[in-house]
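<instruction>
Derive structure tokens from the sequence

<record> Sequence and structure tokens follow
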Amino acid sequence: MTNTIFLSTLLSLASIILTSGFLQLNVRTGEKHHRTERTSCSSAYAPVTESSDTSTSTKLAIASPSKEKTNIPCTKSKRIIIKGIKEDTRIGTAKSSSYTRIKNNKNRKDNEFQWLHWVYNQWKDTSPLDLTDENIIKQMMLSIPKWSKRKSLQDAIRAEELLERLIQEAIAGNPHMRTGITSKSKPIPPALLTVSLFNAGCDAYAKIGNPDGAQRVLRRMESLRNLVHNGSDVQDFANLQPDEFSMSTLATAWAKSRSEEAAQKAEAILKYMDLKGLRPNTITYNTILHAIAVGNQVDKALKAENIVQRMKHRHKKYGEDCMPDVYTYHALIKAWSRSSLPGAPQKAESILQLMDEAASFNEKLAPNTYCFTTVIHSWARSSEKLKARRAYHLLNVLTQRYYDAKSNYKVQSTRKNKKSVNVLKPNVKTFTSVLNACARPVSELEKKDAFALAKMTMKELSIGTYGRPNFLSFAAYLAVCSSTLDEGIDRDAEVKKVFDECIKAGQVGQIVLEKLHVAASPELLQQLIGSYINDRGEVAIPSHWSALTKGERAGGNYSILTEINDYDMSRMLKSSHLQLNDAQKFGAGISSSFDSSPTIVRHGENEILWSTHTLS
């Protein structure tokens, strides 16, 4: 009996101890649980006040554990916290960091813009020698390269004005400017006019394709150096001599100028560098090659070939830093693609094959999307047989390489592999170039094949993997319809289908309407745009039709409306006759296709000139 009582007493004590320990455990876990939930799901819970009173905490922990389980709307977040899953957290962090980076970048640009204008206004109302603050002079020097990167004529002028003011300060003898050759024992003032500062001013004009401004800055540097020979005290001007970067910048200005003299000027720059003993590097040669490639010289492709051979020779014999790279070969391909010499597309494609062979030794020479697109463009401009097949074949080769590189990137995801994927991805220009190759079949036998290839190309582009068709793509496909399909119901059906898609895409540019005029029958043309012809004989299209057209150039030689002969008049519907007569009563004459250039206007907007952007 005594043993039984003793055992029951021990069991009671053990039960009390276990219960107490369980309560303490619940108190601690409850406090921790509430802290965690307040941190991760604070918006989903009622506010919980922390108290130093232990009884309150106990009450919160034990009061109703069922409420904690049933009143948790943030179950997913809780599960992430408990299991340590990082995927959703990582996505949220990436989005947050991306937003922060964009916001910081915008703030940085805004701050830089305010700083540039503040520095610019510090000297406007002063005369030379009035700038007594050395810090202002330093900031003026720092602001010149910043102005040159803004890519506008006004900003380039401001960079030149700052440079000229610093020159005037140096000539006037500002004590904060280094105006003489200082001995090593004396402190050297940091404000020194250098060649790089003039190059920055020259680069401001080069970026906007203004060779006159770039040459003016370089001539100013030459004039300062001549002051030393004429007895000037500013001895540091003797070091102001244009270098390789100066000449490269000037060549860039001519290459971007679209001037007819660009190619000749680029060649003259190369001769000047040889005369002055300057060694052009790869970047200099590439700039000169680009200027020659976009020029209008008949023998530009042969000149580009000679320059590339010169680069190889000088690199091999003299060890100069002018080894041809992928940009060199792309400029060479461009020169051949714009050439009218016989066998130009075959030569362009052979350069592509040469790059493939060189890539086995140097992967940096592997051809990219721009190289392939330029070769396809070369086939499109030519009058070679089966050019549509050659262009489509090159597109398939590029697409296959892109998917191979993409598969390699998925297996081994690195930044290097990602770059190799991006440079091989076909773009809208690639597909449009193939469409252009299909638009002018050489013989009647190629028409059916060319239309089939164009239809497959347009269908693949419309999927959206490589971008969406733009106004040039639609115009090229309409050109294919007009050159490969016979007039009739089938052609009108295809033209109407593609024009409706063009309207939905907001890509009805001026060149699209030009090609529509050629491809559509008079009845279909009247049906599609007849109601948008205003009383002046102009086509006033709705604004949403061309809402997404970007980059179309003004000017051109075609008009939408042409003189309607008796045969076309007989094919027009009666309603079309009435609309035409009404328009003519109000003085809306029908213009010739080569006489004048009527404009396309949007409702309530200014008139837009015709595009000169050809499909080839």
User: Anything to note?
Assistant: The beta strands are 539-541, 600-602, 607-608.
